[in-house]
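Budget justification aside, the reviewers requested a transparent look at the raw inputs and outputs of the sequence design task funded under Objective 1. We therefore reproduce one unedited record. The lines immediately below are the structure tokens for a 105-residue chain.
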């Protein structure tokens, strides 16, 4: 095995693991993938319900729709209530406890 073969195999892997700073020293990358950053606020699993009737039976107050991957919930007056591709019905009190906020429109 030649040095060129070894370098061709290891350099791409090292390039992924390290980034170069302006000074030229190697530093471990601290960047997170976009989705991981978007899901950061979901450190604690938030209970959600698949159907509106399940949510109404479990919640003592209002039921809202939370689109996964966002920090927003939609009320029953919103056009997105129960309509986004990835989401679930949640008790409004639980959504507020998890630092979600109501949609502006």
């Amino acid at each position: 095995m030649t040095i060129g073969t070894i370098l061709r195999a290891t350099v791409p892997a090292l390039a992924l693991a390290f980034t170069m700073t302006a000074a030229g020293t190697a530093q471990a990358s601290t960047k997170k993938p976009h989705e991981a950053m978007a899901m950061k606020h979901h450190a604690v699993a938030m209970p959600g319900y698949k159907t509106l009737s399940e949510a109404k039976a479990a919640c003592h107050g209002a039921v809202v729709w939370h689109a996964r991957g966002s920090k927003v919930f939609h009320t029953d007056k919103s056009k997105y209530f129960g309509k986004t591709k990835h989401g679930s019905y949640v008790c409004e009190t639980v959504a507020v406890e998890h630092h979600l906020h109501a949609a502006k429109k």
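Residues 47 and 66 are 11 Å apart (CA to CA). The longest strand covers residues 63-67. Computational costs for records of this kind are itemized in the attached budget.
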